[in-house]
Design brief:
By secondary structure, this protein is of the alpha+beta class. It contains 6 helices and 5 strands, in the order H-E-H-E-E-H-H-H-E-E-H. This is CBS domain-containing protein.
C-alpha cells in the first residue's frame, strides 16, 4: 500500500499554523483536536517545520511554563523529513523507525498535501493482514 492509497482513504486535511504563532496557540490546537503534530507552513502551504508533542514537552521541561510564550518557530523542528504519495507503508515504517518520529508530512509538487501518522500505518497494516487472512481462508475452503 502507498501513501496515495492511505490519503485516498483518510483524506488530505492537515492542521497547520504559521511560524510566528505563539506556542500556546499550537498547544491549544493539539489538545482541541487530539493530534500529535502540526505542520508549520508559510502562507502558500510550503512546509517549513513540524511541531510535535515531543517538541512541546522538551521545551517545557527545559524552560518551564514561560516557554508557552515563545513562537512556534523557536520550538519547531525545522528539518522536516517528508514523504510523497509513492512511498510504501514499509518505507514509511523504516523512515519513522530510523528517525524515531511518528508523523510524516506528505509533499506534492513542493507543497503540503497531507500527513501520515504511525497510527495510519498500523491501521493499514492491520487491514492488509485481515485481507490476507481472508484470502487464505477462501483459498483453503475452495481447495
Amino acid at each position: 500500500m502507498t501513501v496515495k492509497a492511505i490519503l485516498e482513504k483518510k483524506g488530505h486535511d492537515v492542521y497547520t499554523l504559521g511560524p510566528n504563532e505563539p506556542l500556546m496557540a499550537a498547544v491549544k490546537i493539539l489538545a482541541d483536536h487530539r493530534i500529535g503534530a502540526l505542520v508549520v507552513t508559510n502562507g502558500d502551504r510550503k512546509i517549513i517545520g513540524i511541531l510535535s508533542e515531543r517538541d512541546v514537552v522538551r521545551v517545557l521541561g527545559k524552560e518551564g511554563p514561560g516557554a508557552l510564550e515563545k513562537s512556534v518557530r523557536d520550538v519547531m523542528t525545522p528539518k522536516v523529513k517528508i514523504c510523497n504519495e509513492n512511498h510504501t507503508v514499509n518505507e514509511l515504517m523504516e523512515i519513522m523507525t530510523q528517525g524515531r518520529f511518528r508523523h510524516l508530512p506528505v509533499e506534492k509538487e513542493g507543497f503540503l498535501d497531507g500527513i501520515v501518522s504511525i497510527g495510519d500505518i498500523v491501521k493499514r497494516r492491520i487491514e492488509d493482514v485481515e485481507r490476507e487472512a481472508e484470502e487464505i481462508k477462501q483459498y483453503i475452503a475452495t481447495a
